[in-house]
Amino acid sequence: MGGRRSLLIAVLTLCVATSGAFALTREQTVAVQSTIGVTADGVMGPQTKAAIKRFQRRNGLVVDGVVGPQTLAAMGISTSTAKAAKNTTLTDTPPGTPSARLQSIARCESGGDPTAVSPDGQYRGKYQFSRATWKALGGTGDPAKASEAEQDRMAALLLEKQGPGAWPNC
């Protein structure tokens, strides 16, 4: 009887220790991949795991490559969203809504303010574009005076071209 009791305690301890982790659906994996700037194919392969570890390291999290509640929160993805039913897809996001990664970048860069201008005037808008970057992406005029939707579109384009490293401080 003592052996069974020890086994039960070990199993319960393991359940409690891992209760924060859960499996992601393919769609949720795509959302995570989009957030960390890797090819969003829905497969939790070595590139994705390495990018998750880099994200965790940059954000002061436990570097284990596991997408648990703390990592999801740091990515701006709610735990309830990640635990949602498998029929939830990325198409449930309204068209034109920036990804969780872009929302996180905007919060970090400007507090999400599309009219923000850095103290020296060099960086402008929600994503703190330089005028040169804005122009290289095809933008015209002052990024801080462009519509929020246009800034979101340009930031998505920049993220696609350069990855999250385009915003080294965030």
TrEMBL record:
Domain Peptidoglycan binding-like residues, every copy: 39-75
Membrane-traversing stretches: none
Hydrolase keyword on record: yes
Signal peptide (from-to): 1-23
Chain coiled-coil ranges: none
GO MF terms held by the record: hydrolase activity
Keywords tagged on the record: Hydrolase, Signal
Domain annotation Resuscitation-promoting factor core lysozyme-like: ranges: 99-170
Similarity-based family: Belongs to the transglycosylase family. Rpf subfamily.
Official protein name in the record: Peptidoglycan-binding protein, putative
